[in-house]
Amino acid sequence: MSQSISSTDITSLHMTCDKVVKLGIFSPAGPTQNMKVFIPRCCLNADSGWLVGWQDEDLKIVCIFSVLHPTSGLKISDARNLLQSESERGAYKLGILGKWVNTTENPVQEVPSNSVSNLLQDCWVELIKDDTDIPHVDPQGNWNNHVTQNDPRILIVYDQAHILKSAFQVVDLINTANQSDFDVAFSALRCHRCFFEEQSGLQLTHSKSANNKRASVTSRILAPIWTLLCLIQLAARTIVKICRSSCLSRIYQNEVFCSVVQYPTVGSQVALRLGHLSTVIRYGETSVGTKGSNHNSQHYRGRVCDLALSLVLDVLLGVAVFLFLSKGNYTKTLATNLIPFADYVASELQALLHWLMGAPAGLKLNRPLDEFLGRFFLYHIQLWIGYLYILRPYLELITWCIGLSGCLGMSVLLALASDTLSMLTFHIYCFYVYAARLYRLQLYGLGSLWRLFTGKKWNPLRQRVDSCQYNVDQLFLGTLLFTILLFLLPTTALYYVVFTAFRMAVLILQGVLTKVITTISSFPLFSVLLQLCNGESMAGGITFQVLPQVEDRPLCLSVQVVPVTMATVLERHSLQQTGQEELTSWSMLGRKLLTGDLIYPWGGNKP
Amino acid sequence: MPWRKVLYEDQGYPDNYVDSSFLEQMQKNLNTRSYDYWNTVYESGAVTDHISATCLFVVTFVYLEAGVLSPKLLILLTVASCFLGYIAYAACAVHLGETVQKSHLWIVIRSAVVFLLFTFSLSPILYTLTESVSTDTIYAMTVFMFLGNILVFDYGTTAAIVSESMSFNLAMFGSMCLASRLTTVLHTFSIVSFAVEVFALWPELRRKVQATHRGCKMGVSCGSVLASVYALWTVSTVAAVLLGSVHFVVTFLCPRWLIQLQPYKNNIQGPWDEVNIVDKMEVRKML
Amino acid sequence: MVHHVCMVSDFFFPNTGGVESHIYQLSQCLLQRGHKVVVITHAYGRRTGVRYLTNNLKVYYLPLLVAYNQCILPTLFATLPIVRYILLRERITIVHGHSAFSALAHEAMFHASTMGISTVFTDHSLFGFADASSIITNKILKFSLADVQHVICVSHTSKENTVLRAALSPHKVYVVPNAVDSTVFTPDPSQQRSDRVTVVVMSRLVYRKGIDLLAGIIPELCGRHPDVHFLIGGDGPKRILLEEVREQYQLHDRVQLLGSVSHEDVRDILVQGDIFLNTSLTEAFCIAIVEAESCGLQVVSTRIGGVPEVLPDELIYLAEPSVASLLVALETAVDDKRRGWTISPRERHERISTMYTWQDVARRTETVYDATAELPSSSLADRIYRYSHSGSGWLLFVLLLVLGNYLFWQLLEILVPRRNIELVPSQVAKSPRREPT
Fold first, then answer.
1. Could you say which DSSP state residue C14 is in?
2. Residues C342 and C264 in one domain
3. Residue B148 Cα, gap to closest chain C Cα (Å)
4. Does the complex come out with an ipTM higher than 0.95?
5. A326 and A403 in contact (C-beta within 8 Å)?
6. Which chain C positions have a beta carbon within 8 Å of B5's beta carbon?
7. Is residue B24 within 8 angstroms of chain C, CB to CB?
8. Can you give the residue ranges of the PIGA GPI anchor biosynthesis domain (chain C) (predicted)?
9. CA of C272 vs chain B CAs: smallest distance (Å)
10. Is residue C105 included in any domain, yes or no?
11. What distance in Å separates the CA atoms of residue C232 and residue C240, rounded to the nearest whole number?
12. Pairing state of beta strands A456-459 and A464-467?
């Protein structure tokens, strides 16, 4: 059992990868001053032997995986087999990195310079452990070409099990351009996962420690999900092949067609889902079987799993809703109830307009304008009622189609419902636009004439207000118009307020629907499940502890992986990261309402 | 060593030393004028003129609303007085030695046409504008507008508060508020045209008369005061008395008060003042 | 006598300007003389809380609402709790407010006199008397300075102005001029050019700096002397005027507009010139001409405000604030430069470095502090008497403020007692830290 290092540490530095990079001690992978030696915790008190691992002379990184103890029967061929079986995996070549000498063990064993010594590389290190906690690091051989005596050496103690478990690294994708030395070392470690799991006949330190037994949990969880996804991929691929072979594909490429189709919410939602599906299928086609250990590809793999699960969930929910609707015959009842409801709404609106045309709430309205506007809007309501009557026979079919579209996914059903809502409330939208434009025009005129009233003028060249000498007839006309606009303002404002309130109500409803759709489309189900079931497998960053310094010994840091929080998972793995329009702030909304600017729906692509 | 007003050398005096030359360069009341009482009384005629003109307008409105004055008669009076006024204006100009140019006449006619056209076309909107607003609100607004007009009117001084366009606009706004109280289009049109005459044309004529002859000016002032007081008397005795007292205060008491306050003037000037640049180069007019 | 001084102003680092550098330099020199100095100012953006500047100069950045022109919203009573807390924990004996524009300075001085701590005020600018804003500001100043023990002005003209504005007794006002850091503003002979004469202007381009005069001078001078070049640093609303002049007279190669120049680059710009031109219409002290003189330039300036007191006649060419007069002075300066009849830059620098030093300012300020400490403390009745005779009007309102503040202070003494306030231990001057091996 490995001993834990005494935790009487002077300082405890908690940093994430990015901050460590900024500190400058650990700069992005490149020619650096210091030499870093990664050593597993269990090896610090091991008996003397050979150091097995991977090293990079240019980056000055020595990554020790284990210590090979020189038993009597140790043959060079065994060692070579061990190394070569691993060497075929990727770019990280295993090798004998040097000697580990433990002077405290009893009896002191010398590391025999037998045939295994021949496997030593040109650059090799000697680590000598004595009474102190920190061993002495001594580079030998050709290391002297890369490091000088004065270059600081840093010893980093890591826990193999933790590093291996944290397969999915939740990393900030922006900074992946500069891979730090840690990324390189841990990638090497993860690349040689099998080295730690196989039971070879040789005596290696890590096989004695019990920590490694849990390293394979992640792979066990992934396996069944992976098979399910492969099946789905197969099915989807055949469908897509059929679609592609037809000439419809040429139409899909047309930009104008795309922009027209994406105009209603349902169109854009369907396009989004198709995009997700194609990502999943493309991934399945390109990288079947290969499991890249690069954290980029791991992230991509996680995202694909997210997308696939999200699609599946969507479709299941949609089908469930459709079945529920058709079983209970709700579509028919919905259709039959819709027309009386619409009639009721229309009559209420007419009553409201008649009330506005009187003297509502004692407000000072201008009667001729009031009557004119009221009659104008009443006429529009008549038009709308007529339009609804035309739709009446087809309404049942429409609702049944909406239910059917649930087969494509719950989000598509909701999108279609949102579109239907906006079609049914089209008249409210028209009223709102008329009232807003009129109000805005009036405000603009009032502003300009007020400047004339106080003897000023807007100077567009200098973008400021200047004083100006007007003629008498200009002044007279200006004041006349100003008076008229001012006294007509309450009437216009009232109509504007009323219709904006209606429009706001409709927009809020649509906004709720859009929010639900966005949540369904962007929820990273797979990542969340992974985080819940096996939290340690997702790494959010690393923590350092500085071990007590000893004279003449290198700086010794102990690194631990910090598991990531749910909030970070939701934020980083959200499926829709780009193209999300920010909700306009409340102050902007208020200002737009006050000045009569048209308000567009939230989160949608409608103009 | 005598103390000098310098900072660059240590003169051996303590830092809070007060020399006898302290505040020597201070000058008090450099640019004050001395006022003559009767001259000031004469000048105050400008204010009383304007007040009386405003009151005359208000009385005209009262009569129009009461139905005593018919709108057609008012329009006739307006047009007639317009012509007469223009002839008087031309006479004064001739007396002063200015020539009346053709283009000036053309401008006048154009303005008149513009004004008539727009007034007549917008009158229908105007007369129903404030139907739902209570009378008290309208009268209060009008009072404030006319007060503002009197306040910022250009009486010939250069004070910061004076704004020609603002005063005219305020008067127009007030008269339109009043006009919206009337019942037919013709009423509205007549009162608005009368307002333009009283507030735009009459001050111009007054200025020309003032420039021409002192006696004429005084006669005009007295005449307008008497006319306004009498007109207001026929409407309301209290108001007439009030107007009369206002005229008295403005004409006789305010100049006395101004002269009495002069000794309290405390203008301090000294080397600390921001200098006014004496020679203005043409380049500064570029901005 | 060791004083515990608290400098208060709205204007401090990271803002750069005359008042800010004055406070900073004065504080540093006072620290060197062994006093304890603490600075209180308002928070700048995210810079809030306690910060330490050079030599452990402690600065309190109070999180107060900044309303207008870098000054806090004047609430008078709202700042009492925190100012009281700071003054008690730092064991302040003198509160030194800077700049009449600073609402925080006035409020802190008011609270200090409520708590019985002596106050000193430094006025950095000149004011008029006639327009509406001046009348209101002067009334406020009368109220604020009624209870201040001593006032420091930066020039004799400024002293006269302050005495009149605030109706003070002249013996209460000390004249301690500004100073310049002559180690920074040194001449640079390598930048001298024999083929041209460069006139440098370094100021904000606003009306009160006389940019209209400058706009009149540039074409005339450039027309008469083909070797004269202008180097103008600074920005402001009048920049358009200068650009238009340049356009109209086609002087693109002879007039250079540098735009806004940061504080550390000023010296490098100054040494490129031969003559420094100052066309201000009003100045209390005008540190710019002293900086230019320290860099070895000849100085031409308008005879306004405190400028005639600053430099001796042989070092400066004074002119009336008109284009014609300034042209005469400039031409004389250019002529002298051409003929070599000028005092050498090195000698100018030497003279300035002894004339205006921050150490001298600190010594004279220390004299003021000593005088302040000797004054007897005043009771509430004395204070009310002083306020009622200050001429700030509205006796009832003034009484309300004074009494209200006093009662609030007594309430705070009960709610947040002095024994609960942890006193800041006095600092011992440390030896310079060793470099890590």
1. T
2. yes
3. 21
4. no
5. yes
6. 156, 308-309
7. no
8. 42-131
9. 26
10. yes
11. 13
12. antiparallel
Cα–chain center distance at C294: 18
Same domain, C247 and C145: no
Phi, psi (rounded to 5 degrees) for A540? -100, -20
Q: Nearest by CB to B132, which of A367, A454, A473? A: A367
CA angle (A478 as vertex; A476, A480 as ends), nearest 5? 70
Yes or no: say if C240 and C317 are a contact pair by the CB < 8 Å rule.
no
Domain range summary for chain B, segments of one domain joined by +? 50-229
- Domain presence at residue C430: no
Handedness of CA A591, A596, A602, A606 (dihedral sign): negative
Residue C206 in any domain: the answer is: yes
* pLDDT (tens digit per residue) in A558-607: 888 777 778 877 777 777 655 445 556 778 888 888 888 887 765 433 33
Closest CA to A13 of A425, A438, A544, A474: A544
- Kind plus residue range of the DSSP H or E element containing B112: helix B102-127
Q: Which of C131, C125, C135, C184 is nearest to C157 (CA)?
A: C125
Listed range (A54-68, A241-255, B249-263) with the worst mean pLDDT: A241-255
Q: What is the pLDDT of residues B91-115, one digit of tens each?
A: 888 888 877 677 877 888 888 888 8
Does residue C142 sit in the same domain as residue C286?
no
Q: Quick one: C402 and C332 in the same domain?
A: no
**Are C20 and C34 contained in the same domain?**
yes
Name the DSSP class of A14: B
| Residue reference for tokens 């001593």 | C150
Q: Which ranges constitute the DSSP H helices of C40-177? A: 80-89, 103-114, 132-145, 156-166
Q: Is C179:C26 a contact under the CB 8 Å cutoff? A: no
Of B8, B23, B284, the CB nearest to C215: B284
Strands C255-259 and C228-233: parallel
Q: How many domains does chain C have?
A: 2
Is the omega angle on the peptide bond into residue A563 within 30 degrees of 0, that is, cis?
A: no
Strand ranges inside A130-173, DSSP E: 136-141, 153-158, 168-169
- The pair of structure tokens assigned to B13 is 């005096």
Task: Output the pLDDT for position C10.
Answer: 94
Q: List all chains that touch chain A, counting a touch as 3 or more CB pairs closer than 8 Å.
A: B
At A458 the three-state DSSP class reads: strand
**Same domain? C214 vs C72:** no
Q: Residue C265 is part of which domain span?
A: 189-355
Residues C19 and C153 in one domain: yes
Query: CA-to-CA distance for A573 and A578, rounded, in angstroms?
Result: 12
> Tokens 């992946």 — which residue?
A176
Contact B128 A366 (CB under 8 A): yes
Q: Is C244 helix (H, G, I), strand (E, B) or coil?
A: helix
What DSSP assignment string belongs to C283-308?
-SS-HHHHHHHHTT-EEEEE--TTHH
Q: b or e along B147-158 (b: 16 or more beta carbons within 10 Å of the residue's beta carbon)?
A: ebbbebbbbeee
List pLDDT tens digits, range C176-209: 999 999 999 999 988 888 888 999 999 999 988 9
**What is the pTM (predicted TM-score) of this model?**
0.70
What pLDDT is attached to residue C114? 93
- Of B25, B30, B23, the closest CA to residue B267 belongs to B30
Look at residue C340 and tell me if it is in a domain: yes
Confidence of residue A201 (pLDDT cuts 50, 70, 90): low
Strands A49-56 and A61-68: antiparallel
The torsion angles phi and psi of A235, rounded to 5 degrees, stand at -65, -45
CB atoms within 10 A of CB C209: 22
Higher pLDDT, B177 or A224: B177
Q: Are residues C155 and C235 in the same domain?
A: no
Residue pair C387/C212 in contact (Cβ under 8 Å)? The answer is: no
Q: Is B284 on the interface with C (CB under 8 A)?
A: yes
* CB < 8 Å to A477, chain B: 114-115, 118
B-chain CB neighbours of C366 within 8 Å are: none
* Domain layout of chain A by residue ranges: 17-216, 329-523+583-595
